[in-house]
Write a structure and sequence with these properties.
The chain has 391 residues and is an alpha/beta fold. The protein has helices at 8-13, 15-23, 52-63, 76-82, 107-114, 135-161, 196-209, 232-242, 261-273, 291-302, 312-319, 324-327, 352-355, 357-360, 365-390, and strands at 43-47, 68-73, 91-95, 119-122, 168-174, 185-186, 217-223, 225-228, 255-256, 258-260, 279-283, 289-290, 331-332, 340-343, 346-349. Helix content is 42%, strand content 16%. This is NAD-dependent epimerase/dehydratase domain-containing protein.
């Protein structure tokens, strides 16, 4: 494997590769407005901003020059710790519990904070992978998404009625929208599934779509499994493999529709600045992988075997219904136009860290050559870009 690739699995065992990829990262806008502080002068609100994805989003907004970031959180103490005022003077905080309805105490302040926002990024939702799915837990998972989104949309509606300019609502969703399958492929035109997570995603999106009726541009991001070296599933898998206990769960044949954190952040930024974004988007790599392939690659990069499978029966006994998160999956593919980036007036598909998954997961020599070529183009573009900025 060419170490220049910086593919996310390499980051787990080869920190140098990951750091190299981070140093070469460029922000590529689909509107052709590459690089720069594209959010300068903007006010953006983020709910769920202390979570795994949300904290990265807040940092990206600041890096992109947002004048003010309003962080909606139910845990102000945690938020102050993650974003201390001395280091983040342009981050404002407001209490927001996405799992409960509107209250007289909270609603006026929320209205003021969201007034004249250029965009609202709604990521709030109870984590899916924490504990068994009891009936109480299922209600919390659903309410934190559906009720919270309903409140935000209602506030945006009132602000528009009171004279505020319509805003952009970027609302999280998930690939669970499509249900699960070991054989079918899903794109944005595919219908919703019928299981628990699909029903939640469908209701979640329905609440968000209501914002469009009030003139607010609405973007739905159906996120795949977000990968980053500093959190999420990858961070949990690495110590297991380092302890020689790694291996696939269940059959290992279940699909994992994943996406690199940097790509999520690029899509969020693009969706804020580009009016061409509207409706639902699958935010996933165009190269989904089988769980067993991921385990094999991770083991190889860490120099550890992927030899200890976890039987489905044990997971079902331990986790109940929530075991489906790892035992079942779906092959979700993004709209190719979403992933097309502009390099020196040439358009190629996908960033190298995503494209290189073809080679990294043992695909054809032709795929390996294609990905190496994509990587070299990115490197060439970045060098030219750096030189132009230094002149």
């Amino acid at each position: 494997m060419d170490q220049r690739s910086g593919f996310l699995w390499l980051g787990a065992g080869g920190g140098a590769c990951f750091r190299a990829a981070r140093r070469r990262r460029v922000v590529c806008g689909l509107d052709g407005n590459d690089g720069g502080r594209r959010l300068k002068g903007m006010k953006v609100a983020v709910s769920g901003g202390t979570g795994f994805v949300g904290s990265h989003v807040v940092q990206r907004l600041i890096d992109e020059g947002a004048d003010q970031v309003v962080l909606l959180t139910r845990d102000l103490k945690k938020a102050w710790g993650v974003f201390p005022s001395k280091e983040f003077p342009n981050v404002d905080f407001v209490y927001f519990n996405s799992a409960v309805g509107a209250t007289r105490k909270d609603e006026p302040l929320l209205e003021r904070k969201l007034r004249d926002c250029d965009a609202v990024v709604n990521l709030a939702g109870e984590p899916l992978a924490e504990g068994r799915w009891t009936e109480k837990r299922k209600a919390e998972i659903r309410n934190s998404r559906v009720i919270g989104t309903r409140r935000i949309v209602s506030i945006l509606k009132r602000n528009v009625l009171n004279g505020s300019t319509p805003t952009t609502l970027i609302n999280a969703s998930a690939v669970g929208f499509y249900g699960t399958s070991s054989t079918a492929s899903f794109d944005e035109s595919s219908p919703a599934g019928k299981d628990f997570l699909a029903n939640i995603a469908k209701a979640w999106e329905a609440e968000a779509r209501r914002a469009s009726a009030d003139g607010n541009r609405t973007v739905l991001l159906r996120l795949g499994l977000v990968m980053s070296i500093d959190g999420g599933a990858l961070q949990k898998l690495v110590p297991v493999f380092k302890a020689f206990l790694g291996g696939p769960v269940g059959t290992g044949a279940q699909w994992v529709s994943w996406v690199h954190m940097d790509d999520v952040l690029d899509i969020v930024t693009d969706a804020i600045v580009s009016d061409s974004y509207s409706g639902a988007y699958n935010v996933t790599s165009p190269q989904p992988a089988r769980f067993s392939e991921i385990c094999d690659e991770l083991g190889a990069r860490l120099g550890r075997p992927s030899w200890l499978p976890v039987p489905s029966s044990i997971l079902n006994l331990m986790l109940g219904d929530s075991a489906q998160l790892v035992l079942k999956g779906q092959k979700v593919l993004p709209n190719p136009n979403t992933w097309t980036v502009k390099l020196n007036n040439e358009r190629i598909q996908v960033k190298s860290r995503v494209c290189v998954s073809e080679a990294c997961l043992g695909k054809t020599k032709q795929a390996r050559a294609t990905c190496t070529k994509a990587e070299s183009r990115f490197q060439h573009f970045h060098m030219n870009d750096s030189q132009s900025h230094s002149m």
